[in-house]
Specification:
The complex is a heterodimer. By secondary structure, chain A is α/β, with parallel strands linked by helices. Chain A contains twelve helices and nine strands. Chain B has two domains: 157 residues, Rossmann fold, CATH 3.40.50; 215 residues, Rossmann fold, CATH 3.40.50.1100. Chain B contains 16 helices and 14 strands. The chains are: A alpha/beta, B alpha/beta. Chains A and B meet through α3, α5 and β6 of A and α1, α8 and β11 of B.
Chain lengths: 262, 404
Amino acid sequence: MSALTERFDDCRAEGRVPLVGYLPVGYPDVETSIAAMRVLVEAGCDIVEVGPPYSDPVLDGPVIQHAAAVALERGVTVDDAFAAVAAVAEAGAVPVVMSYANLMLQRGWDRFAADLKAAGGAGVITPDLTPDAAPAWVEAARAAEVDTIFLVAPSTTRERMQLTCDASTGFVYATPLMGVTGERAALGDAAQRVVSEARAAGAERVCIGVGVSTGEQASEIAGFADGVIVGTAFVRALGDEGDLERLRAKVTELAEGVRAAR
Amino acid sequence: MTGSLQEAPGPFFGEFGGRFVPEALMAALDELTDAYDKARIDPAFTGELERLARDYTGRPSIVTEVPRFAAHCGGARVLLKREDLNHTGSHKINNVLGQALLTKRLGKTRVIAETGAGQHGVATATAAALMDLECVIYMGEEDTERQSLNVARMRLLGAEVIPVATGTRTLRDAINEAFRDWVTHVETTNYVFGTAAGPHPFPAMVRDFQRVISVESRAQMLELGGLPDAVLACVGGGSNAIGSFDAFLDDADVRLIGCEAAGDGVETGRHAATLTGGRPGILHGSMSYILQDADGQTQPSHSISAGLDYPGVGPEHTWLSSIGRAEYWPVTDADAMEAFRLLTRTEGILPAIESAHALAGAIRLGRELGPGATLLVTLSGRGDKDVEQAARWFDMLPEGEGDA
C-alpha cells in the first residue's frame, strides 16, 4: 500500500475519485509555482504532479511548452522540483513527479528515486519512458519504494497494455486521445475504451489525463475512470502573471466537477 | 574482434540506441520495424528501390579524383564520392526513397519530416510528389531564413513547410514538432526520419538505406587500385557518414573519420561537436551522446551549417567512437569555409557547407599523412543552396545588394 493507493482509497470512501493537478515548477518563477501548487491542494487536488521543465518536451502542447521555456530561461533546476515536492507533501496532497527521461538519467535512476522519496514524493510519471525501455528505472524505483506510473494510449496494443499495466504501480495514466497535452472540446468514446482495456489488463486504478479542461468534462470522466488529471487548463489559468486567484477558481471548478460525478 | 561490424541490426549498438519514446508511438514503431524487416528481404521491395536508385536518383554516383584540391592536402591522393550529383542534390534521397516506399507498403497516405539545411525536406517532398503522398515538412524558423531557397523548392514540390518558432528555432525543434505531429496523426502518417538517429528502427534502417554509398565506393576504390587509407564524411545526425563507413567497417586498415561541426571552436561552447563535447544521454528517442547541461537540459548547438547544427548524434556513431573503430574530429566554421573555397576554386565543384567539413578534415589528415596516402571523402551534397550564405561569408555580394 503506497501513499498514492491510500489516497485513492480515501477518496473512494468519500464516494468520489481523486483530482490530479499538474504544474511545471519554475513557472512563472520558482516561488510562485510552489505557491500555485499549494493553491491546487487548497482548492481540491488530491494528488499534485510536479513537472521539472525539460528543454525538449515532445509530448507537450504549446501551453506547457511555453511554461517550460519560461521556467528554463529563468534558471529553474531539477533540484527545485524536489523542493516543490516537499512543499506539496507539507500542504497535504500526495506529490508525484512527471519527468522526461533524460533529467532522471542524468541524476541517476537510483538517486532520482531516492531524492524523490526523501522529499516526500510518492511516484514518477514518465511520458517518454516505457517499462520495456527502462528496466533500470523500475528497479531503482522499487528499491526506493517509489511508484512507477506509465502511460497507455488508444494505440496501445493488447500485449503492450498488459506489459504496461503489470509494470505500473500507484495508477495507470491513460491518454484518451492521440496527441500532445492540451485542452480538447470532446474526449469521445476512446477514453472509456482505454480505461476498460487497462482494467481488463488488471489495472486497479486508471486515471485519464490529456485534454480535460472543464468541470463538465471532469464530471464525465469521473463517471468511468478512477481519477481525473488536469494540466494545461491549470497552467493556462496561472499564466505568465502567476494569477493564483484565477488558478484557484479553475481548480475549484474541476474539483466540483469530480465531486459531481455519477 | 570476431564477427562483422557491418549492418548492426539495433535496437542497441553497444549501450547506445534503443527506443525512448511515448507509449503512443510504440505501436507505430513496431509496425514500421515489422514492415521494414519484411521489406528488406522482399525482392519486390529491394528491386523497386534499386530501380529508383538507378533510374531516378542516378546511381551509382561517381568517384572523382581531385588533384588540384589534393595539392593543398599534403600531396595525398584525394577522391570524392559524389553524392552531390544525386537527384535533389544530396545523399538524402537514398534514404527517403526507401522510407517512402515503406510508407506505401504500410498503407499510409501522409508523410512528415524534419529538415535542417532543407536537403532532407526537399528529398522527402520529391519522393512524396513521385509517390502521391501528402507531405508536411517541419523546419526551424532560423533555418527557413538561412536556407530560403530550399523552402521554396519544397513548396514548389507541393509540400507544406511549417516553420518552427519554439526553442532554438533549428533542427532539434523541428524534430520535436515532427514527433508531436506523429503522435497526433500516427494512424495516417509515417515519419520519414532524415538521419541515422532517433528511436529504433530509424538508426539501423536509415543506415541500411545509406549503405549504398560505401558499397559502391568500396568497389570503386578497389577498381581504382585499392582501399583508401581513410574515409571521411561530415557528421550531424550522421546518416551520410554511417552510410559512407558501413561497408568499410571490417577493413581494419581503413581509418574512418567523422567530421563534426565545431562552430566557433569547441572551447568557445558555441559548437555542434557532440562526440567531442557531449556526454551520454537520451534525446529524440535514443541513448547517445548529446550536448547538455548538468541537469540534462539539451544545450543549444551552433554551426554555420544548418545540416550539422544539431546537439545529438546517431547512436551507432557513438558506439563506433566508444570501441575506437571510428574517430570524430571537430571542424570549425572557418576551416570548413576555407575548404569550401578551395574545392570550388581548384576543382570547380561547389560543395554543401556540410560536406565542406569533411573536406577540411581531408586537408588536415592529408597534411599529417603526406604523399602516398589515399583519402576518400564523401561529398554529401552540393552547395547551390549555400551560395548566398557563402557569398556573404566571403564578402562577395555586390555593394548595396544587402540593403535592397
